């Protein structure tokens, strides 16, 4: 309840509650009579007559709540006189809640959920019926009980308000979930929980006192108190008050959750961010070593990086003509500033570095103009930059995520102005660049960080977006005010890359030119040109012979190439190609010199010559046709196309393939006009577009116009001859009709006749018509591999062609025949859905099923009188019926939707999500023309509403249900069958609605069982598979029941046996694993090793699913178990070898990488006696395959309606890259440990392998931690190269200090934990142990409490009183958190009673307890990586000095020391270990205060082994660490 005042009496708070109830519901609370109370009981019982167990449970819960409220009312009424009895008011509120309108019959289930949630806690109050005298109840308890009852009344009011919220409520698929998602209901349930906790603490104290007085059993009370608090916590968990962040605070999952929230709120997928970085990485990998070193000589760059002097502009422009290497230089800047990467010597950092902590983000703008291009490129760029920064800075991620609001965070009844300011998904979707810059704090980094933002390819931005960014840059470039404390203009430094013409528009100086510092790359990159020429000549094997003549020629060629280059790498490539041609043609040195000294033509003239040279080729007719076909798709096509797609389009058009591949032609004949970019797309070379586009179709017609003129000259002919000539001529025309041989002349699709000389050129309208005809041709033909390759883009571009041709005017307008052709074929697409059915695989990109504007384009043609003037009767009648329908678009699409309905729910061939999503998209789209989704899907009698996509997350189950109802009507299904429910279950499963999926599978099971019971035969395999599906969708503890039912149906089924094996094997010992494997393979009377092959296939399939990361352990357990069975071990190895060979031959690279990873593990167990390849070879193969195939795939929006637009998950290759990298890095590290002094060359090779993995292995989350990086640092330390080890972690060290100084004590555990890891891998074991001991575990006893509350002699009396209370009132069995809460309650009570001179002592104690409570809520602990036991308060634990975050208890450490390896791949007996300090009460109390035992001596911190004596602050110790790491402690304010 939101109270606006602080009531001074119970009467006041009840009156406030009454007013709040009336405000929320518009209803007045009245006391409830005995008759009315019985009516409430009857209502609860009557509306819950179902025999369903959940309904029965809810009815019982509701009746017990009534009973408990009545009992509590008796206690609550002991307070001051009230106008209404508390119980009566509660019953009045409950009666309003139970008055559910008939239309909302589903709301009963939601109310049931409330009953079930709160009943367990309220039932605990039944203890009051045993109290002989309620007058003896403590007044504090009476007040607490009244507040609990008031919270119940307010909860009823909010639920009533939700119920009466309008039509949107009726669309909720799961009202229970929807109601708990309401922010107001969540808040009140949280309030209810807090009141319960407060009341129970008071009750516990009071009850214990009563128990002591009456000598009753103390244990019963302690158990009861713990049970009450546990149940109260369960309520909080169930209603979602505890966020996932709070539940997972012990791990870096917290930061990952922040990142996920940021991405989802901004609408940016992980793939988009990864793609941006991949562009930069690929660019950087193509550079020559030392590229960009000349930047160190540029004051503009050096000042920009260092931010010195203070007036330096934070914006730097990189300009230059195309091809001068601007993008390459930008990638070099990125790699040099990004201090997370561990660059090798070959590609080390060579540019000047910033002094502080640099957070670097990069984005490259792509050309626009295609359908799938980003429509808001500038906004997307800023969002991607934001996510990249958040990945690098935990404090920034936390700050940003907490500033965002979920869609449900804003109360529905909040003022409109408040909702408009809510920074949620909708806000950021509509935000402009300035809003994003401000709200995402791109120019306001945390603490000592600097944001380096690199924007490449800004030429590709539309003018308006360029101007928006220019306004932002103007703002950050403004100098600080005179009285400003800021030393620099902005916390961000921006590098913008583009042509000078575009960049000048960002801001013009008063004297002309740019007002920002500018570097002309083309004028400064001479050194890079030299290096590039050297490399390219070497790659082309030109002038590489080691003799004087070749050296002289090479020098001359290099000088000539550089002179002609004028800063352009493009010119260098072209000229080297020319030089290579001269050399291969065996021309003379003079020819070479002449070519290099020839005047270079400008780019436009060169293009003209290139086109002319192609047109002049002999027998060029087919070549020009092919070139024009390529040009029209590349230039005017609605999508980008790769080489394979264009080759397929040529085949569709000309129905023939060339003996020479298109790839070869693009590298040769067509290389002057077209090129393949780094994404594999074919694009036009610069200036080609303006030369090949023909302005008007009339221009082409004019060029094709044919005229015939005949001049007849008569010389020396007599009259008879002349007459005979004209007679024969007339006869030839009249009778033979001038039938010449060869017959006729016809023009092709480009407008040129076979006898005319063709030219290279395309017209836009002609191009769209040709592309449209190609699309229709594909659609009306049978599907082939070729059509499936290009079909998706062709069908998705259909509307684009229609729109352009529809708007063509004057000379470009289509003829009547062409218009009729378009309309006739377009109508056929919708009238005969079998065409789309045949090409279903190609329909994944079509947008006219969800975009009404695209349907409007369709209707533009189908309503064109000329276009539809000659339709046949059936088509004409059907079109008329659709046009006259109240919903024309839905009517037009109904045949298509009906086909999809059949394919979705009555057929198994297609996957279910796409047809379901397509039907829903159509229903939602057609609900926007004043008819709601409700009518479209045949809801009851609700009014029409329009569903917003922002609300789809909450109503997806409802949408699927209503779509299935529409299908049921469309398909005229009276009774659904087994297949119907099976397909619905698959649909729910595909969109992660697991409960609904199990429900539908259960219905399918019931149908099969009823069919069998009726005497009909069923396919028991279907029933078995259903149980397997239900098991896979269940939690681990419930899976086995389903699998056992499947096993009863088919004892020999391998999948069933595998599922049981997978459920049980991971938690077993090695011997037990062998027993489980043997059990799974024992079929009939004996062991069947051959069954390992299908089990292997099932494991690999589960692996590729990606949702179950435990499969790595499962696979290893199967291998481990099989290794102990002599009959199975050779068979498993043989099966793995065969599977590897098969996967490699079939190009299944995901299978191949998985199998190599685990075959390596198997090889490590068996040695070379059983396998021909070593474990290292297999792991290297896994790494290579995963790295080569870990390509970012674009997100698919096909099923976004059901599975979400940002449901990104890590690819299987990225997971395998992490796993293989971890195993390989440990292997290489252990190898170097064995060879430190024996083989220096081998050692260096191993180090390079570690460096390669540390550089290439994908970082997990934001921290950039990899095991390879940790092993590499440890290896440096072993070689006494501490500075190199520290260099690896310097960026991470600064990030840790930021966490520890971010004014959020709640994440200090993460900072100290990470610090401990860093210090461990840098060999500083002593300080690593100190860092571990600055994170207190959840522990409390009297000795610790005494140390914690030691506030000096003056407060000793208060301290002793609390300690006595702890000793007598806090049970040992209670958790430390419960004990502290009881202490807080007692301190609050004593503080109110204390004299004024003692109040400060109680305040200090209260502060200490609150800080300690915050520590306990973290519940941090160390766990043994072998036996998984937690480290106790005074127990010894060991930490590995080399393996990342690896700890063993004393027992497991002793086993490891004795070479009894506890787990495979978990550490090694050969590693160095160090003992962590053991806790004692003094050290524990110091850690809670942020201090540690030690002294400062001669500038060094000396930490005491004992906590006795002096203590220093953690901040002083952190300052000491800064000195050891050459970091400035003043940056973080350390002592």
TrEMBL record:
Residues 14-128 form the Fungal STAND N-terminal Goodbye domain. It comes from the Eukaryota. InterPro entries: Goodbye_dom (IPR031350), NPHP3-like_N (IPR056884), P-loop_NTPase (IPR027417), TPR-like_helical_dom_sf (IPR011990). Residues 290-462 form the Nephrocystin 3-like N-terminal domain. SUPFAM superfamilies: P-loop containing nucleoside triphosphate hydrolases, TPR-like. Keywords: Repeat. This is Fungal STAND N-terminal Goodbye domain-containing protein.
């Amino acid at each position: 309840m939101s109270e606006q005042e602080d009531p001074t009496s119970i009467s006041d708070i009840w009156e406030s509650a009454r007013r709040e109830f009336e405000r929320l519901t518009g209803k007045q609370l009245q006391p409830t009579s005995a008759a009315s109370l019985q009516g409430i009981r009857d209502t609860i019982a009557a509306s819950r007559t179902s025999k369903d167990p959940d309904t029965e449970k809810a009815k019982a819960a509701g009746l017990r709540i009534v009973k408990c409220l009545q009992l509590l009312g008796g206690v609550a009424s002991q307070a001051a006189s009230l106008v209404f009895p508390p119980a009566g008011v509660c019953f009045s509120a409950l009666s309003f809640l139970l008055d559910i309108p008939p239309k909302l019959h589903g709301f009963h289930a939601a109310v049931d959920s409330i009953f079930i949630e709160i009943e367990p806690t309220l039932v605990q109050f039944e203890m009051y019926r045993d109290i002989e005298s309620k007058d003896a109840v403590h007044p504090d308890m009476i007040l607490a009980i009244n507040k609990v009852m008031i919270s119940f009344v307010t909860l009823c009011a909010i639920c009533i308000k939700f119920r009466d919220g309008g039509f949107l409520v009726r669309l909720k698929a799961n009202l229970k979930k929807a109601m708990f998602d309401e922010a107001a209901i969540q808040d009140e349930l949280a309030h209810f929980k807090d009141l319960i906790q407060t009341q129970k603490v008071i009750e516990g104290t009071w009850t214990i006192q009563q128990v002591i007085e009456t000598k009753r059993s103390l244990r019963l009370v302690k158990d009861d108190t713990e049970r009450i608090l546990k149940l109260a916590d369960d309520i909080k968990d169930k209603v979602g008050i505890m966020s996932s962040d709070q539940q997972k605070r012990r791990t870096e999952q917290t930061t990952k959750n922040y990142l996920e929230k940021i991405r989802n709120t901004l609408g940016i997928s992980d793939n988009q961010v990864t793609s941006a970085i991949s562009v930069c990485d690929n660019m950087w990998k193509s550079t020559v070593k030392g590229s960009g070193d000349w930047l160190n000589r540029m004051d503009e760059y050096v000042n920009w990086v260092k931010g010195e002097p203070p007036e330096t502009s934070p914006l730097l422009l990189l300009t230059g003509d195309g091809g001068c290497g601007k993008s390459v230089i930008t990638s070099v800047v990125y790699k040099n500033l990004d201090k997370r990467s561990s660059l090798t010597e070959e590609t080390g950092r060579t540019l000047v570095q910033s002094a502080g902590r640099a957070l670097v983000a990069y984005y490259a703008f792509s050309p626009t103009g295609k359908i799938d291009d980003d429509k808001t490129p500038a906004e997307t760029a800023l969002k991607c930059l934001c996510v990249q920064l958040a990945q690098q800075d935990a404090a920034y991620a936390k700050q940003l995520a907490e500033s965002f609001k979920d869609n449900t965070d804003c109360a529905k009844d909040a003022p409109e102005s408040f909702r408009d300011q809510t920074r949620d998904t909708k806000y950021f979707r509509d935000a402009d660049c300035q809003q994003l810059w401000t709200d995402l704090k791109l120019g306001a980094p945390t603490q000592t960080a600097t944001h380096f933002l690199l924007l490449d390819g800004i030429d590709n931005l539309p003018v308006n977006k360029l101007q928006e960014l220019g306004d932002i840059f103007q703002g950050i470039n403004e100098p600080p005010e005179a009285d400003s404390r800021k030393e620099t203009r902005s916390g961000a430094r921006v590098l913008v890359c583009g042509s000078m013409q575009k960049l000048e528009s960002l801001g013009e100086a008063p004297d002309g030119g740019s007002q920002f510092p500018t570097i002309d790359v083309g004028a400064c990159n001479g050194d890079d040109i030299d290096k590039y020429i050297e490399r390219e000549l070497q790659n082309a094997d030109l002038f590489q012979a080691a003799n004087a003549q070749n050296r002289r020629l090479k020098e001359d060629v290099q000088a000539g190439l550089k002179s002609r280059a004028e800063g352009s790498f493009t010119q260098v490539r072209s000229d080297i190609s020319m030089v290579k041609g001269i050399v291969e043609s065996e021309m003379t040195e003079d020819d070479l010199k002449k070519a290099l000294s020839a005047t270079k033509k400008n780019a436009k003239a060169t293009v003209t010559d290139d086109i002319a040279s192609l047109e002049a080729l002999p027998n060029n007719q087919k070549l020009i046709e092919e070139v024009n076909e390529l040009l029209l798709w590349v230039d005017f096509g609605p999508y980008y196309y790769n080489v394979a797609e264009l080759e397929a389009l040529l085949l569709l058009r000309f129905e023939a393939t060339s003996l020479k591949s298109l790839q070869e032609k693009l590298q040769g004949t067509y290389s002057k006009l077209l090129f393949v970019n780094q994404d594999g797309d074919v694009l036009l070379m610069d200036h080609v577009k303006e030369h090949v586009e023909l302005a008007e179709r009339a221009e082409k017609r004019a060029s094709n116009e044919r005229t015939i003129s005949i001049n007849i000259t008569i010389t020396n002919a007599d009259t008879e001859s002349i007459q005979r000539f004209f007679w024969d001529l007339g006869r030839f025309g009249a009778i033979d009709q001038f039938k010449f041989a060869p017959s006729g002349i016809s023009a092709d699709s480009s407008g040129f006749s076979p006898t005319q000389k063709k030219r290279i050129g395309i017209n836009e309208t002609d191009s769209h018509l040709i592309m449209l005809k190609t699309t229709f041709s594909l659609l009306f033909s049978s599907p082939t591999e070729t059509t499936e390759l290009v079909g998706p883009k062709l069908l998705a571009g259909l509307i684009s062609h229609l729109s352009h041709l529809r708007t063509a005017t004057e000379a470009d307008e289509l003829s009547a025949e062409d218009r009729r052709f378009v309309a006739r074929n377009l109508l056929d697409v919708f009238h005969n859905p079998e065409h789309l059915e045949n090409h279903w695989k190609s329909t994944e990109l079509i947008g006219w099923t969800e975009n009404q504007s695209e349907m409007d384009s369709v209707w533009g043609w189908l309503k064109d009188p000329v276009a539809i003037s000659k339709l046949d009767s059936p088509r004409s009648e059907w079109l008329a019926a659709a046009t006259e329908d109240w919903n024309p678009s839905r009517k037009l699409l109904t045949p298509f939707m009906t086909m999809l309905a059949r394919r979705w729910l009555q057929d198994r061939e297609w996957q279910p999500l796409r047809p379901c999503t397509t039907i829903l998209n159509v229903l939602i789209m057609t609900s926007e023309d004043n008819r709601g989704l409700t009518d479209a899907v045949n809801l009851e009698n609700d009014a029409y509403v329009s569903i917003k996509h922002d609300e789809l997350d909450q109503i997806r189950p409802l949408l699927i249900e209503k779509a299935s109802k529409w299908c049921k009507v469309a398909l005229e299904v009276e009774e659904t069958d087994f297949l119907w429910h099976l397909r619905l279950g698959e649909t729910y499963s595909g969109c992660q609605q697991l409960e609904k999926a199990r429900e539908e599978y259960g219905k399918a099971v019931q149908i099969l069982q009823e069919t069998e019971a009726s005497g009909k035969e069923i396919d028991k395999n279907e029933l078995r598979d259903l149980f397997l599906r239900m098991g896979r969708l269940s939690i681990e503890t419930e899976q086995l029941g389903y699998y056992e039912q499947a096993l009863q149906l088919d004892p020999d089924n391998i999948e069933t046996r595998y599922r049981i094996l997978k459920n049980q094997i991971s938690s077993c010992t090695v011997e037990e694993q062998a027993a489980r494997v043997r059990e799974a393979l024992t079929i009939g009377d004996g062991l069947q090793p051959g069954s390992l092959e299908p089990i292997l296939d099932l494991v690999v399939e589960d692996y590729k699913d990606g949702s179950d990361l435990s499969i790595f352990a499962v696979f290893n357990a199967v291998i481990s178990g099989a290794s102990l069975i002599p009959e199975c071990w050779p068979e498993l190895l043989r099966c793995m070898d065969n599977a590897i060979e098969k996967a490699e031959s079939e190009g299944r690279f995901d299978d191949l990488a998985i199998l190599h990873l685990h075959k390596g593990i198997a090889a490590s167990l068996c040695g070379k006696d059983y396998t021909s390849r070593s474990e290292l070879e297999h792991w290297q193969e896994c790494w290579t395959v995963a790295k080569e195939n870990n390509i970012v795939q674009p997100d698919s929006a096909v099923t976004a309606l059901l599975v979400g637009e940002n449901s990104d998950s890590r690819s299987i290759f990225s997971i395998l890259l992490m796993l293989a990298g971890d195993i390989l890095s440990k292997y290489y590290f252990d190898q170097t440990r064995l060879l430190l002094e024996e083989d220096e060359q081998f050692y260096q090779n191993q180090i390079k392998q570690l460096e390669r993995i540390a550089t290439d292995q994908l970082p997990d989350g934001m921290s950039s931690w990899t095991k390879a990086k940790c092993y590499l640092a440890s290896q440096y330390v072993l070689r006494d190269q501490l500075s190199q080890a520290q260099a690896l972690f310097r960026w991470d060290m600064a990030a840790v200090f930021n966490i520890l100084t971010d004014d959020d004590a709640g994440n200090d555990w993460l900072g100290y934990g990470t610090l401990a890891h860093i210090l461990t891998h840098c060999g500083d074991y002593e300080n690593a142990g100190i860092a571990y001991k600055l994170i207190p575990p959840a522990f409390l006893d009297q000795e610790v409490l005494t140390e914690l509350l030691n506030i000096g002699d003056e407060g000793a009396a208060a301290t002793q009183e609390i300690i006595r209370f702890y000793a007598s009132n806090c049970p040992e069995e209670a958790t430390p958190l419960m004990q502290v809460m009881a202490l807080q309650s007692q301190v609050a009570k004593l503080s109110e009673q204390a004299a004024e001179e003692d109040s400060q002592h109680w305040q200090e104690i209260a502060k200490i307890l609150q800080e300690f409570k915050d520590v306990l809520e973290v519940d941090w602990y160390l766990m043994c990586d072998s036996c998984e036991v937690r480290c106790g308060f005074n127990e010894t634990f060991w930490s590995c000095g080399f393996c990342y975050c690896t700890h063993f208890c004393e027992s497991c450490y002793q086993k490891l020391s004795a070479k009894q390896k506890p787990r495979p791949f978990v550490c090694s007996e050969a590693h160095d270990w160090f003992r962590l300090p053991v806790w004692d009460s003094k050290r524990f109390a110091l850690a809670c205060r942020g201090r540690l035992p030690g002294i400062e001596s001669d500038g060094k911190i000396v930490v005491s082994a004992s906590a006795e004596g002096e203590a220093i602050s953690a901040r002083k110790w952190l300052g000491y660490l800064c000195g050891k790491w050459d970091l400035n402690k003043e940056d973080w304010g350390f002592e």
